[in-house]
Amino acid sequence: MLIPGWPSKMLPKKTSLAIATLGALLLALDIAKLARPFTLAEVLDFRPRDIPNVEPLAPIPPSTRPVTALKRPIIEPNLIDQHDDLRAFYLALWRTELGAPGAITRVLHYGDSPVTADSITADVRSLLQQHFGDAGHGFVLVAKPWAWYGHRGVEVSGKGWRIAVATQVRAKDGFHGLGGVSFEGDTGASSHVELAEDHAQMEVHFLRQPGGGVLTVEAGGQKLGEVETQGSEKQPGYQTFPLNAGAREINLSVQRGPVRLFGVSFERNTPGVIYNSLGLNGGQVQVVVRYFDKPQWTEELQHQHPDLVVINYGTNESIYADYIERYYPGELRQVIERVKAALPRASVLIMSPMDRGQRDSNSRITTVPSLPRLVEIQRQIASQMGCAFFNTFQAMGGEGTMAHWYDSTPRLVSADFTHPMPAGARKVGVLLDQALESGYRQFKAREQQSAARRESANRGSP
Amino acid sequence: MLLTTAAYFTFLAAVFFAFWLAMRYRWGALAVVVFANYFFYARWDLAYLAIIPAASSCDFWIGNALHRFAEPRVRRLLVTLSIVLNVGLIASVKYLPVLPWVLPLALSFYAFQSLTYTIDIYRRDAKPAESYLAYLASASFFPTTVAGPITRISTLLPQWSKREMLTPQDGGKALFLIGLGLVKKLLIADFLAENLVNRVFDLPKLYSGAEVLAGAYGYALQLYYDFSGYTDIAIGSALLLGITLPRNFNRPYAAQNISDFWRRWHISFSNWLRDYLYFSLPGLRSRWKIFAYLNLVITMVIGGLWHGAGWTFIVWGAWHGFGLAAHRGWRALHGNPKLTLTTGARVLCGLTTFHFVLIGWIFFRASSLATARDIFYQISSLTISFANITPTFVLVMVVAAAAHFVPQRWYDGALQLYCQFPYYAQAAAIAALAVAIRYIAGSGSAPFIYSRF
Fold first, then answer.
1. Which residues of B are catalytic?
2. Do A239 and A328 reside in the same domain of the chain?
């Protein structure tokens, strides 16, 4: 129907001209590359929904190591263990699996912020303990140096401590204990630890020092004893207390200050795995090199006598391309050297960081450009220095993974495209556990075959 | 097709020219709008091309039947059918997805808008549409599809019959609103979300108490600028076609009490809840005054559930319901003291109301009650660290908070000035804004928060 009296001029003149001019200006800007390139095809894009644009996967360059140097094929694609670097760990795991008394497999997992809330490590611990036995929670800090510090199955709170974290307010003497954090308290400072299950014993990690005070230890409402921290010189001290059945609430209080603590560890007397989560907020290899007192850290490592040390740094370094090229390889080597010097018999596993995303100028979530390079450096150095290597980055999907993780339901990574949500942490934990257990099964099969061959050779010989 | 993308604005420009060129024939203009509506839905998902026309046709038929039948039982049956149809549409898309994939638009706004049609005819507040095309154009009007404003169809229908050409004043206002909406959404809301808010609400324990509190304040501002930015673009888009949509926000964080807040925040939604839900609940006319209070809580809990089937939304709704009921009770006891308050008392009332709303927003945004608990726990830990708060974030927060309180006359003055610009200056201003957004925002555009409700 014709609208009666409709004006002969059909378009609203000024607004039409404004829109047409705007279109022409934006087209000119588009041609001049000042605006985001845009095509009319975008208007006619009838995809079911707006799918995030993800950069294609770029494979990690192959190893430069000659193939002839390989002892055996790599069956677990993301766990490179070409020279039986995990042998000590696998042997310990085997003893644990056989259930020999006191056969505890100990793991120290050093990492950065994704590990600081016991993310990833709690899931690996839980899976390994399900399969090989639960020998206890292991090491926990005596207060929360950062709000999100936690250890699954343990509640920790503390008050009155002056907290020195190796990455932030550092202890001047570099004594940061096993976990990279020092807690100094005067009379009245205290900590409360609640365990979900019974443990057989606890060990207090402290600093013996001139003028050191006294710490009172209570469990289940009963006083277990005192820790005398007075010593002729500064050196790590350890004191073990048995825990009765049902004693799950532990109180540590400074009776006379000053007292310096590094943490407490909990163990059972049954064969199993102890998987220590040693995440450090802002952790980097350079923190270990520059701010961990070498002799003190060496003594802490030796006291733990772990079968496996996981070095899982790289998230924080990944955004510094120049540092990665110039300094990172040297500092990573130094960390490995220190661990190997302290623990010549232990296996060392370099675990790469997870993917780390950022938004590019076109709003796409892409991998931080220098991260793949950092991972490749880690792989090469691990190979050169007799360490196994777990490529977390590749195992979780490689470049652009965080875009998928951010878009998935439930979301697997937080909005910083760096820190995993609980489901994402579990995914990584499962990937690491699967790789280690798969490697272990292959190791065991190889060893059994070799033993069978030796036995048959012995039977055949006169 | 988000309302902030180049694709949308190209589409809008095409619709604008086609609409006005076809306006000489009313059916032609309506056909352009209906085509645009369905094109817009199809860009989200082709499944809408089956769902929306079918649902709209049913409501159109029910509206005609309601007008034709006088028998109360039949009319009740018909309006119930419409309610079941529309609520079922929301439920099937949002809570019990029946399709093998998830539809990106929840259709809540479509369904609420459609219900105004049949319920108004049932109540004899409106007459059915004379033109099927006009009804289809109104029911699924594309600027209101994503997140409202929820517009009564009875207020849209007469606007299609207008004879006036778009005035330069209205055209200028439309472009101004679209530009303002882009600034609100891309420069403020998305910036706040990307630079602290999303992180804090994902893993609150990673941040200090001060940072979490800043994140909560940031979310209050993000939500306002996101939603009101969308609304500005929607109102501006409709105005380009000569259609006036209702106002949806009126400086909500300047509210003096919680009732005042709901008169200023998402106005079309709170009006809908009042007119179509609160007044429909039983007991309002009984002598038991408790029903007036109880119905407030029920209305807001249902309003919370409309946002999503989760305890966080129920708590958010109940929080506001109890707040509104408490304020109503207080007013019944003390009267309305608005005129007797001193400036200091008014500031105190404003701050109290804002923080009451802020507590609600924490539940609204948190992914679970456990996350909400972590947020409150972190804030109460009183830990002070600003490591994750950049000076730019603080600057944007301060500008966003200050802009919220800009006097209306400043806004009107800026609008008037823009409208007086010659056409090329109007175009140049928007182009400059587009380039500035391109370079300043950088991170692109996130979906509008309310598009998922």
1. 307
2. no
